[in-house]
Design goal:
Chain lengths: ~625, ~80
């Protein structure tokens, strides 16, 4: 008997317009319980090596976490994956919201899509009923209109719609997906892969209940009730509810690691206009939630006197399009956020790319001729807004910037390569590793390019008496200062990378489990036991995360990625220009030693490839053969 | 004295206030003040008084502007 998962995976071939149901047994799910693990399994197992990201043969995977849809806070996440058009590596992006839980309620663990439809289509799923439908009338439309049209067509306002926007249609290499208009699989350009398949949306309605499939529903229901009560009495979850991620602006600026002017600086002189108190006063209309989540960290804002359908700016968006572009105009940032979310551009890569272009402009590498007369200087909010439009529509210089900073720098030439803040082709998120070096290890080593959600952030585990450190302590970590780049920092990184990866397999938000927030380590283990009946321990959960990461790494090894790609932009090895950490930089020898130590801990060879012994230990020796 | 409790530090104020006006009759050590307010020092990463970084041993007076930041966003050097 199997519990927790549904055991059913949907296969859709858009070229042949065929739909197949695949079932998998308990032995499969014990190795690949969901999310990142299922996505990486199918991409390594089935995607022919060296498949071009926009070729019909590329696989688009949408995979629920093992616990996605369970009725407790933060169990909402699903993985969108494919070979990334931005990095050409294993590509992945997680999102919360409502679509993943709805897919589970419809009876599916994952969807595997291949091929390319002749003309635009959308997928319609109602429990076991699956249909490919014409979407020519939806192509080029705004997401709000697409969602309303689909709900009206099927006469059901509770349908959950996952979709791309015009950026995905235009194959912008960092195009995003959204569900319910306010939840985003932002990174790695998975939206562009979906666009290349002529697939505009996947609409889902399900009528089953997660608890009906659980081995022991009672502990899961009790956890849901306990977390709903705990959310206001735990300082971390309370803060996420009170301010959400925009509350980070203040603290990162004070710490001197608020990326400013394309990572030249760590503090922004215009911060006062961007503090939470201003956001709350001028923008906020409501605090919103994902499925069954009591944290309610999502913001709703007003723009031009009306509530925006597309949610409010998160921290990453505020900084990438704000201080990182030298901009301190909160209303312009709310507008920029709405534009990114309407066109479905990843707001991190969009901001990083515009900051890159501004630096190129200020150094004369591009001029008014290239920008169609736009003064693309740091601090010019109107230029930033115009660039978002041009990127989404691939107009003028937007066509070049839609390729991401790595490709744009290669075309522009000269010093532009030094201004391109990326790892493996993916633009840096808004966390400066010069103040939290573990984040730098994560940027460098992540299989999907610079990613700020591969492990815990150093400051949360720096003080042994802090709530966050104590929450993570059962994992076997030790307290290490944020800027210390040592063997013990690497060991912490390794443990917490496995834990964070497990979260992506289980479908838990980064803002759920300790050390970041309010769900304790033993509660995560208990939820897996109750859902599945498996007799698992904390070590087993860490192993689940490690297996998924190693599979993704094997995907990259097959595509020629190695230790030479595990690096950081030169700028991070140079001193910060201002703020509390003025003069701070990452020591390149320390950084390189740390990576060698991390490979050793992970059981990888000197090239950064998992050894056969390591893969055997993880129960995935087959992956060693598939990569040759 | 104006006190800004950034991030989750505001949770420790009984009324969950991020910004407080406090009257200090005489210069007071920050650690003493925090004990009175119930804000645990281990949750504080950065202390800024009148735009300058200081430690929790610093003394503050009634005209000061004090900002306390938690470790989630960033750490101290």
């Amino acid at each position: 008997m199997s519990y927790g998962y549904t055991g059913k995976i949907l296969r859709v071939d858009l070229t042949r317009a065929t739909i197949q149901i695949e079932t998998r047994d308990d032995a499969f799910y014990r190795l690949y319980p969901g999310g990142k693990a299922i996505a990486a399994y199918f991409l390594v197992r089935e995607l022919p090596p060296h498949t071009e990201p926009f070729a019909p043969e590329n696989r688009l995977m949408l995979a629920n976490g093992l616990l996605t849809g369970a009725p407790f806070s933060t169990a909402t996440r699903y993985t969108a994956a494919a070979r990334s058009p931005l990095t050409r590596a294993y590509g992945e992006s997680e999102a919360g919201g409502f679509w993943g839980p709805e897919l589970r309620m419809a009876g599916w663990d994952a969807i595997l899509i291949t091929g390319r439809a002749e003309s635009p289509v959308y997928l319609w799923i109602r429990d076991d009923h699956v249909e490919i439908r014409d979407a020519r009338h939806l192509w080029g439309r705004d997401p709000l209109e697409v969602q309303e049209t689909i709900r009206t067509a099927h006469n059901d306002p509770l349908i959950r719609v996952l979709q791309i926007g015009i950026a995905g249609e235009n194959r912008v290499r960092y195009a995003a997906l959204t569900n319910d208009l306010r939840h985003f699989n932002g990174r790695n350009g998975i939206g562009a892969v979906m666009g290349s398949k002529n697939l505009r949306a996947i609409a889902v309605r399900g009528t089953t209940r997660y608890l009906d499939r659980a081995y022991d529903p009672q502990p899961i229901a009790e956890l849901g009730r306990a977390l709903a009560q705990r959310v206001k009495v735990h300082p971390q979850s309370w803060d996420l509810q009170d301010k959400g991620t925009p509350g980070l602006m203040d603290s990162l600026n004070a710490a001197g690691i608020l990326p400013t002017r394309n990572f030249h600086q760590g503090a922004f002189e215009g911060i006062d206009a961007l503090r939470w108190v201003e956001y709350e006063k001028h923008l906020l209309t409501a605090r919103r939630s994902c499925y069954a989540c009591a944290v309610r960290c999502k913001r709703e804002v007003r723009l031009d006197g009306q509530v925006s359908a597309y949610g409010g700016p998160e921290y990453e968006t505020l900084d990438s399009l704000g201080p990182n572009c030298g901009i301190g105009d909160l209303h312009a940032l709310a507008r920029a956020n709405e534009l990114c979310n309407r066109y479905l551009l990843d707001s991190i890569s969009t901001g990083s790319t515009i900051a890159f272009a501004m630096e190129c402009f200020e150094h004369g590498l591009i001029g008014l001729k290239e920008t169609d007369g736009i003064e693309l200087r740091f601090g010019n909010a109107d230029a930033m807004l115009k660039m978002i439009e041009m990127i989404a529509r691939r107009q003028g210089i937007g066509d070049l910037l839609a390729e991401g900073v790595r490709r744009a720098a290669e075309t522009i030439g000269g010093d532009a390569r030094e201004f391109a803040m990326h790892v493996k082709g993916q633009e840096l998120p808004m966390h400066d590793p010069r103040g939290k070096v573990g984040i730098g290890i994560g940027y460098a080593i992540s299989e999907n390019g610079a990613d700020h959600l591969t492990s815990a952030h150093d400051p949360t585990i720096a003080n042994p008496d802090s709530i966050t450190f104590k929450g993570g302590q059962p994992l076997g970590i030790e307290a290490v200062p944020s800027r210390e780049l040592s063997e013990r920092k690497v060991r912490n990184y390794y443990i917490l990378e496995n834990w964070t990866s497990a979260g992506k397999v289980l479908g838990l938000c980064f803002f759920g489990p300790a050390p970041r927030s309010f769900i304790q380590v033993d509660e995560v283990v208990g939820a897996v036991r109750a859902a599945t009946g498996w007799d698992v321990t904390t070590q087993d959960i860490l192993r689940i995360g490690e297996r998924a990461t190693n599979l993704a790494r094997m995907f990259n090894a097959r595509e020629g990625f190695s230790h030479k790609d595990d690096t950081l932009p030169n700028r991070l090895f140079q001193p910060l220009e201002n703020g509390a950490l003025a003069g701070a930089f990452i020591s390149r020898p320390d950084f390189e030693r740390a990576l060698v130590e991390l490979y050793r801990l992970k059981g990888w060879d000197a090239k950064g490839t998992p050894t056969r012994e390591k893969l055997r230990e993880l129960g995935i020796e087959w992956a060693a053969d598939s990569s040759q | 004295m104006h006190l800004h409790l950034a991030g989750h530090l505001a949770w420790y104020d009984a009324q969950k206030r991020a910004h407080l006006e406090i009257h200090l009759a005489e210069p007071t050590r920050l650690l003493t003040l925090l004990r009175q307010l119930g804000v645990p020092p281990e949750e504080i990463a950065i202390v800024v008084v009148n735009d300058a970084p200081v430690t929790l041993d610093a003394r503050v007076c009634d005209t000061d502007r004090v900002e306390l930041f938690p470790p989630v966003g960033g750490g101290s050097a």
